[in-house]
Amino acid sequence: MATKKAQLQQGNNLRDFTQRDELSDVTLIVQGEPLYVHKVYLAEWSPVWRAMFVANFREKSAQEIELPGKELEQMVELLHCIYPSQKAINEENVHFLLELAEEYQIEKIKQRCEVFLLSGNTDLESLLLAQRYCLDKLYTKCIEGATRLTLEDLEKCDEFQQLEPRTLNTIYKSKINTMRDYASYIKEKEVAMEKECNKVSRERDRIQSKLQTVKMLWETPSKRCYRHMGNTAMFDFSCRECNEKVYREIKKLCSELPNNRIN
Ligand SMILES: [Zn+2]
């Protein structure tokens, strides 16, 4: 007869490990409570459990294994995560699940914890977990995040003191690389701007020289009409031909100037 607790858990599609199961062949004792589980299934997940069951079988053939120092709720949560119910990793269970998965070498649970953490804030708290449990992808992503902090902000974080030297080294190296990349970006920009600046200067000189030529037109007797060509006097604004010649010259010079230089 199922207890109320078991019924509740069945409603959630979660196994009640405190209830006897005719197929369970080993009982884990946690905080004095029995958890009925299946050797073969657990052994598939954890080489530590496999070794434990093998040793237990050889030495005592006992069906009960005491797990001292473990929390009942945490062990049940771990079992829910590895049994077919595959309970999800969340903010509440991720820390102790990582610790248990590390102890029992349950790689798949570690991977699922890492995937969960990767979906959240990759802050220094996550970096500490990545550092502690060797979660490489999370480690790399958290280092990227830490690299974006200023050294002052980094040192102000509570977690700073717990960063291992190798982690600090990686962050500093990454910061140096970022600065080097930024410096070469600035250098490239500088070269491009210098090029642009030279181009504009040449353009300015060209326009200035054209304008100077235009200005000189009125002072150049050879640019006047055939009647006033040899005339050294000031330009005669009253002569229609002189004006037309100069006008044509100006028009020609202006057509050689670009219309819109600045885009
Ligand atoms: Zn004239």
Automatic annotation (TrEMBL):
Gene3D superfamilies: Potassium Channel Kv1.1, Chain A (3.30.710.10). PROSITE patterns: BTB. Residues 24-91 form the BTB domain. InterPro entries: BTB/POZ_dom, SKP1/BTB/POZ_sf. This is BTB and MATH domain-containing protein 38-like.
